Each structure stands twice: as structure tokens, then as C-alpha cells.
Amino acid sequence: MPTQALRFASLTIIACLAVTGFDIVTGLEHWPFGSYPMYSTLYSGQLSWLRLYGATDQGEIPLRDDRDFAPFDQARLIVALERLRSAPGGNQKLDEALRNLILLYNRRRKALRALRLYSVSWTLRRGLQGSEPPATRTLIAQVTAGAAEAGR
Amino acid sequence: MRAPAEWAKWAKWHGYWFAPETAEHLALVRVISYSLLFAIYLPFDDRGWTQVSPVFWMPISWFRTLSGPPRDAALIGVLQMLWKASLLTSAIGFVSRLSMATAAALGYFLLGLPNCFGKIHHLDGFPVLLLCILAVSRCADALSADRALRKSRKAPIAVSGQYTWPVRLAQTLFLLVFFAAGYAKLRNSGLAWMTAANMRSIWLGELFTHTPPTRLGSFLAQSTWLCQFAAVATVTVELSALPALFFRRLRVLTLVGLLGMQALIALMLGVYFTPHLAGYALFLPWERCYKKLHG
To answer: Is B148 buried (19+), middle (13-18) or exposed (0-12) by CB count in 10 A?
Structure first.
């Protein structure tokens, strides 16, 4: 193997292993490298989560399908909303986010009169199926379709 | 002059990464990897992100150098078409250098873009690394359209370490993905992660936070013993990915365990690690199959 090629390959290998090792040890993420921390925290018997509900002519419905707010899937969307909520100026950012989300939803179905973000919780016990309504529900933010259209 | 111990270390390092292989060995990995990634990402569409409000823009890595999220859906559409075409041309080895560089650069951009909207999904990091490694390798030295079209070019070297290290590095990074996941659990939660209660909470919680295709999580969560076994087995299999780099027999067991674990994750949690199929494929004996096919 030519020396130059050997040097290049060795440097590439060392660089990749160094960034990978650094991310693993520190828990930092340098995408596409990463520390892969998914599901690494402790989960308690109490689940707190954010959930979006839509106000329609037939009443309020939970919106938890991965295609509801495409290109967002539920996992990414809820984490993004949680991050906005805890950021400085969180309320204002959440309002702007919900205005965008109702437009994304209505672009496909045109059914929502309002979009509401709730903090919800369940007590996790054996036998749950995932369809049970939350034990607690607290309204965090809401927008109407009219306000979202006006703010376009 | 190097001391004997130093030589021994160097020989080990060299033997691990650069044990001579044929050009076909790496070329087959090229064909399989690009073909698989093309098939997996064919329905992939990033254009929707141009409709998402900039309030969601939380850039990662090199995306921080952009002034904001891309707003031109047509441009993203063109880039996607170029990327998918480059995956295909890389698989057949047509205009190989340009194709593979395009596949890596556009792969980084297009697969990284969704991760700039609030959360990194750990599905596409490895495929991007694989594309980058193949792009700087000599994987088009054999079984490529370029070689067939330019017969006057000199033949590839029979065997060389140049055809070994890219596969070895991709395999190593793939296994380290899982070791990282196991290590993160112990770093963030300690041994408490491996309790039945924690595992049960994960399985039951995902019924509400995700949309799993089955209710298997609900069913299995009823058994404390199963929860306990799954918690210990998960961390054990993930951590075994590091020693599996060096021990072939353990590697087979670990890979089977990891594949089974990811299949269960898909069924129970609704999280699909489909792009990782390209990683598992790196460990299959493609050259043996190829030789059998060609007598």
C-alpha cells in the first residue's frame, strides 16, 4: 500500500475514532457522530408529555398521528415544542409555532378551527393500552385558524 | 528505531485495518451499500421543511453556518433528485468520484436538515458516515461502469490494505453506535436503568408518546421478569458491541442480538431503524457469495 495512501487512511481512521470517542465520553453530539443518548434517562411511573388537540366542529380531538403535522413526526415535534417552551420568550415562540402548525395541518385537511397545546400526564400501570385519556391536562397555549391566517 | 513492543503494536494496528483484501471485496460493499441506501431513501422528502416556521430552526453541526432554514422547495427538490441519482450512479460505479462525493455532500445536507428542527433522530448519522467513508475510498476500482467503459486503464492492484480499511472503519463506527447507546444509559442513569420498573415505564410510556404498530409493549410490560430480562439484555448487548470489534464469534452474537433488539423496538415503540440495515449488511460475506455465483 503506498505510503501516502496509508497516511491518509490512518489519519481518517484516527479522526473518526477521536470524534466518536469524544462524543461517547462527554455525551456531546457532533452530528453525524453522536453519543446516542436516546432512552438513557430514568423513567418514572408518572409520564408527563405535551399533546396537541384540535378544535373542530365536532369538538376537541387529540392530534397524535405522525402525518398530522408533516414533515414533523410526533417525537420531533413534541421535543421541539418543549424546547421552545423552556427557551427565553417561550410563550411568544409557542404562539408562533402553533400558528405555523395549524397552517401545516389545515393545508391538508382544512378542518381545525383552533389548535391547543396541553401538558398531559398519566400514571403508568400494567394493562394500559395507549388509548386512555390523560389523568391531568393543563392548557399551555392556543391559536385560532383565523389568527394564523391573518398572521401569514 | 522503534522498540519491539512498539513494532508489535504497530503490526496489530496495521493488521486490523490494513490486512490485504481484493478490490472486489470493497466494490461489493459499494454496490450493496449504495443500492440499499437508494432503496431506503427513495421515498425521502425534505421539501416540507421549507414550510416550517423559522421559530423551529435549531441548527446542529455545520448547519449553524447557514443564516436560517432553507425556504426554496424547488431547490430542495432538485437537490434530492441529484442525491438519489448520485446514490444510483455510485452503486453502479458510473462517474464514480463525482457521484460518491455528491452522494456524501448532499447526504450530509439532506439527512441532517430535519435534525435542525428540534430533535436529532439517531437514524441517519451512520448512513452519512458510511457515505463519507466510501467517497474517500477506492471502492470503484472493480465492478464499476467506469472500469468497464475505460478498458485501457491499468488493472486494480490484486490485493491491498486500501480495500480493507474503509469497510473496517464503517463496521467499527456502526458497532460503536450501539456501544455509545449502552454507555450513555450507564453514564446518565447508572445501574438503576437496568431495573424492571424503568423498562416497564419505557414500554408503557411509548404507547402514549409514539404510535407503535402493535400493543406488544403493553402485553410484555405485564411481566416483571420479562421487563427485568429486557433491561439487562439491552445494556449487555449494546456494551458487547465494543469487544465484538475484536472477537469474531462474539460479533455474530452481538449483531444478531442488536438486529433482534431493533426489530422489537420497531414493534413495541414504533421507532424504525431502517437505515441501519446498511450497517448490518457490512458484515455479510458478499465476496463469498459473489465467488460462488461466478464459479
So the answer is: exposed
Q: What is the ipTM of this complex?
A: 0.92
The closest CB to that of B17, out of A13, A23, A41, belongs to A13
SS3 A130: coil
**Alpha helix stretches (DSSP H) within B52-195:** 73-92, 96-112, 125-135, 145-149, 165-189
3-state secondary structure (DSSP) of residue B214: coil
Cell matching residue B57 = 430552526
CA distance, residue A13 to nearest chain B CA (Å)? 7
Residue B135 grid cell:
467517497
pLDDT at residue B295 above 90? no
Nearest by Cα to B25 from B159, B171, B170: B159
pLDDT tens per residue across span B202-220: 999 999 999 899 999 999 9
Q: Indicate the domain borders of chain B.
A: 20-163, 172-295
Contact A97 B212 (CB under 8 A): no
**For A36-87, how does the pLDDT look when each residue is reduced to its tens digit (9 = 90+)?**
999 999 999 999 999 999 999 889 999 998 889 999 999 999 999 999 999 9
Å between A66 CA and nearest CA of chain B: 8
* Sole residue written with cell 463525482: B98
Q: Are residues B271 and B217 in contact, defined by beta-carbon separation less than 8 angstroms?
A: no
Domain segments of chain A as ranges: 1-41, 46-150
